[in-house]
Amino acid sequence: MKEKLFGKTLTELQGVAAELGLPKFTARQIADWLYKKEISSVDEMTNLSKKARELINEKYEFGLTAPSKIQGSTDGTKKYLFPTFQQKFIETAMIPERERNTVCVSSQVGCKMGCLFCMTGKQGFQGQLTAGEIVNQIKSIDEANEVSNIVYMGMGEPFDNLDEVLKSIEILTAGWGFAMSPRRITVSTIGIIPAMLKFLEESEAHLAVSLHTPFNNERRNLMPVEVAYPIEEVIAEIKNWDFGRQRRVSFEYIMFGGLNDSPRHVKELTRLLSGLKCRINLIRFHPVPGTPLKSPGEETIQRFKDELNQKGIFTTIRASRGQDIYAACGLLSTKELLSANN
Ligand code: SF4
């Protein structure tokens, strides 16, 4: 099998040029074709000599992967299914809003973190995605030219695949790459502290942390990661960083009926986040098969939001999108995996 060019950084492309005996500037030309233009084969790189294209074609391929399935929701959300290795699939969601088009990308195939409420977690860990496979989820969708924001909130825990995630952010933000502002990129984590610190050090993208409850015992039941990295330690680390300017930190809070929606939770959240400039995004829980968890009523979510705002924590309720197409991450690929294996 030929190696893919798509997903290589400029430095790696310079290595390819050197290996093939091509001038160094060829790397920049290839990067332009890969990340700024609308082609899908080496033969279309018309400013490269025929000989150069032949040499490249011998060992490398362009490397884009088309989606194997696309589902559209009545609300405009689209879900893309991309094939990876061994008949496995990853999901990408495209969420159009008034002023932005947000793509939600996957960073792993399945996930090993075992969060109770998550369908991807139930698949277990199947493998890591490469930077190329992450960026392909942006380049190979119908709306590739209209993407304004990227969130790493699809399948997998991005900080469990940090090197490839950082490389994908480099490709998305570098001048030789997609040249996007890092302020348009948000990476979501359940709070793996060492990787989070490396991410904060090496990237300028926004950080989102899945919080879901401020109490250790409740969080341990929902998210096994709490045992290794308790939420107060995660937040203590975050407080050492400057989020007062352009870079943002936000907290995702899935609302579970009768579990994390009480005034006691508001009080503890307020204590935990005091002194930190941040926002909380409340997310309605949409039941996934095999969990006892349920969603609270609309008025409970609204009250929770109002109480947090009154305490001075900027809190919003995330609109539910694409429920008719299994937008809850992991459902569609699980379905596909099952039918591929039957
Ligand atoms: Fe993995 Fe995220 Fe699902 Fe937890 S919520 S199991 S980290 S994909």
Walkthrough of the structure:
Specifically methylates position 2 of adenine 2503 in 23S rRNA and position 2 of adenine 37 in tRNAs. Its cofactor is [4Fe-4S] cluster. It holds the Pfam family RlmN_N. It is an enzyme of class 2 (transferase). This is Probable dual-specificity RNA methyltransferase RlmN. With about 350 residues, the protein is of the alpha/beta class. It has 13 helices and 14 strands. It has helices at about 10-20, 25-35, 50-60, 120-125, 130-140, 160-175, 195-200, 215-220, 225-230, 230-240, 265-270, 300-310, 330-340, and strands at about 5, 60, 70, 80-85, 90-95, 100-105, 110, 125-130, 150, 185-190, 205-210, 250-255, 280-285, 315-320. It has a 10-stranded mixed beta sheet with strand order 3-4-5-6-9-10-11-12-13-14, sandwiched between helices. Strands 1-2 form a two-stranded parallel ribbon. A two-stranded antiparallel ribbon has the order 7-8. A hairpin with a 5-residue loop joins strand 4 and strand 5 (about 90-95). The longest helix has 13 residues, at about 300-310. The chain is globular, with a radius of gyration of 21 Å. The two termini are about 25 Å apart. The model has no long low-confidence stretch (mean pLDDT about 95). The structure holds iron/sulfur cluster. Iron/sulfur cluster binds near residues 114 and 155.
